[in-house]
Structures are given as C-alpha cells and as structure tokens.
C-alpha cells in the first residue's frame, strides 16, 4: 500500500474550512509533518535479488512467529506473496520449500492445497528472525511509535464522529471477538473491530495511512501480529478484550480523550509482540548458517 500524500492546496483548503476539534488539529499537524516533509522510510526495503529466496523465507518464518499466520492457516498464494514482496514466483516457491523442509509449513498439493502453517516456532526460527528484524530494528521501533500515535488520533476522531449505525457495527465485531471459539476467529473479529473504528472517522486518508503503517510493519501480506500465547494463555485474550470493551464504551460516550488514550495503550500489545519475538530469537543459541547460494529462482523473471 502506498502512503497517501497531501499537497499544499489540500492543507490550505483544510485551513480555510477550519478545524473544530483538538483531534482534528492533531490529524492535520501530524499528517503535515510526517507525510509532506518526512514520509516514513519503508521498513522493509525491496528484497535483494541475490538472496531473494532466503530473505523471503526469513520474512515468512518471522511473520509466522509473530502470529500474522497462525497454525492451521494457509499462507497466501505464491502470486500474492511474490507481488507483496517484489520477487519472482520461483523465489517464493523455493522459500516455501525451505519452510516445508524445516517443518514450519506443510505443502499440500491439489486444488485445495497450498502451504499450511504447522507450528509457530521451529528449529530454524531464531536465526531467520534475527536476519529479518535485527538489521531493521530501529526503523521498526520508529514505525511502531508512529502507529501508536495514529491509533490515538483514530480513537479520538471515532469518538467525535461515529454515528449510531457505525457504533452498532463496532459492537457486532466486539461481540464476535468476545464469543470467538479459537485464535483464528479472534484474529478475524479483531480486524473487523478496528476496521469499523477506522471507517467511523469518515476520513479515507486517515484510514489509508493506518493501513500503510500496518503494511510497513508486516513481513509479508499485511496482517496484525497475534501474540503466540493468545491461543494457550487466555490472559492475553482477556487483556485485549478488556481494552476493546473500554475503547468501545469511550467511543459510544463520545469521550475523545479517553478513547485516544485507550487506543494508544491497546497498541502496546502489538509492540510487545514484536519485542518478545525478537528477545526470544536473541536468547536462542546463535547458529552458524552456510553462505546462501544464488539459484535460478533468485534471479528476476
């Protein structure tokens, strides 16, 4: 996803119309300073063709460890992964074969086949995660910080602008999250809840900015990280549920200050997931990996 930009005329128009709320001022100021003058550098630079299949494998292993893809999930198709990462399909195919060989995914053939996640963490995960995260960690921290600021603004604007119909949509998604029977259902309901909040801001540019930042911190197809313990330790689920309910109440009560603060605090779950996964990888014994060979699949088509 591309980060939206505003030209001077757009800002002039906004100034002419007048901003009637605190959060509106914060949106204008943040977008002006971040997007016009210092658009964030994408965290994940284009995959280097010389080591494409190895780097794709590292990113996918990291995405799985973060919970972007849960055990039992089918990974996106080779075509979608290749487009998202800017590599050839043979490079993706070889990367998936590596994951299959390490036992992290299972490759199934046929019309209903694909690469299915078997486990969130394998013997090669720590090394892959270090390759994927450590060289870019400063950029990750900057984007995580920016995402928390944007979530604050989204919560405030949703509290000010959401309609009863939009609040009903949030409530329906919250109910699905509360009644989810497994981590996959939780993940889907969580995405629906946050999408409903974003939509209620009535600002497509703010929606796009939030989604662009999600893409910037994703290792493959943009999905929100999901704490690995969510499916085992219900404390993680209950923490997120309590946050969702508090955010929903603040929005329905049009309490912009409270909604913003709660939304920013809630984002810490995502930030903590990244830090915990990196800490686990760094605590594992360092593995000496052989130099990757450049195969035909590592070359552009």
UniProtKB/TrEMBL annotation:
Q: Where is this region: Disordered?
A: 1-23, 279-301
Renumbered to this chain, the Basic and acidic residues biased-composition regions fall at 289-301
What InterPro entries does the record point to?
Answer: GntR_C, TF_FadR/GntR_C, Tscrpt_reg_HTH_GntR, WH-like_DNA-bd_sf, WH_DNA-bd_sf
Q: Which residues form the signal peptide?
A: none
Q: Does the keyword Transcription apply?
A: yes
Extract the GO molecular function terms from the UniProt entry.
DNA binding; DNA-binding transcription factor activity
Q: Which Pfam families match?
A: FCD (PF07729), GntR (PF00392)
Q: Where is the HTH gntR-type domain?
A: 50-120
Q: Which UniProt keywords apply?
A: DNA-binding, Transcription, Transcription regulation
Q: Which PANTHER family match?
A: TRANSCRIPTIONAL REGULATOR, GNTR FAMILY, UXU OPERON TRANSCRIPTIONAL REGULATOR
The name this protein carries in UniProt is FadR family transcriptional regulator
Specify the species: Leekyejoonella antrihumi
Identify the taxonomic lineage of the organism of origin.
Answer: Bacteria, Bacillati, Actinomycetota, Actinomycetes, Micrococcales
